[in-house]
Amino acid sequence: MLSPQKTSWRKQSKGKMRGIVRKGCDVSFGEFGLLSMDKGWITARQIEAGRMAISRHVKRSGKLWIRMFPDKPVSKKPLETRMGKGKGNPEEWVCVVRPGKMLYEIQGVESTTARKALQLAGNKLPVRTKVISREGEI
C-alpha cells in the first residue's frame, strides 16, 4: 500500500475540494490516460486495485505511470465511542482528486487494450473517469 515515509503532522484537517486542476491534467508520459471528472478522495487500496486491474489486463506489457499519491491521513474514532475526547487516530491514507486530474497513464499497448484496461481501473475508483489519448479523446 502506498503511504508517505515521513510527514510534517500526524493528523490533517478535512479541507476543501474546490475548483479544477491546473497542473497534472495532460497526458505527459504515456500515450493514453485516465482523467478524473469528479472530486473525491481515493484511498491507497483503490489506487492499488486500479494498478492491478491495468497490469493484469495488459498482461504486464507496456509501461504504467500512477499520477496520484495518497499523502493525506484520514483519522477515525473507534466504534461505539462517545463524543469528545479528541480526534481519532490516522487509519488510512487518501489522495485528494479534483476534476481534470490525470490518474493513470499507459504506453506501449494497442489503443483498444489500453482503453479497456483504463476503463477497468476507472471502475475501481469512487470518481467518474474518462479515457483520453495524447491527441484527445479516444
Tally of alpha and pi helices: 2
Fraction in helix: 10-25%
H-E string: EEHEEEEHE
Give the total of beta strands.
Answer: 7
Q: In CATH terms, what is the fold-level topology of the domain at 39-76 and 89-133?
A: Aldehyde Oxidoreductase, domain 3
Mean pLDDT across residues: 95
Taken as a percent bin, the fraction of beta residues is 25-35%
CATH architecture of the domain at 39-76 and 89-133: Alpha-Beta Complex
Query: What is the first-to-last residue Cα distance?
Result: 31 Å
Could you please describe the fold and organization of this structure?
By secondary structure, the protein is α+β, with helices and mostly antiparallel strands. The chain has a domain at 39-76 and 89-133: Ribosomal protein L16/L10 (Aldehyde Oxidoreductase, domain 3, Alpha-Beta Complex), CATH 3.90.1170.10. 20% of the residues lie in helices and 28% in strands. It is built from 2 helices and 7 strands. The strands form 2 sheets. A 4-stranded antiparallel sheet has the order 3-6-1-7, with helices on one face. A 3-stranded antiparallel sheet has the order 2-5-4. 25% of the residues are buried. The mean pLDDT is 95.
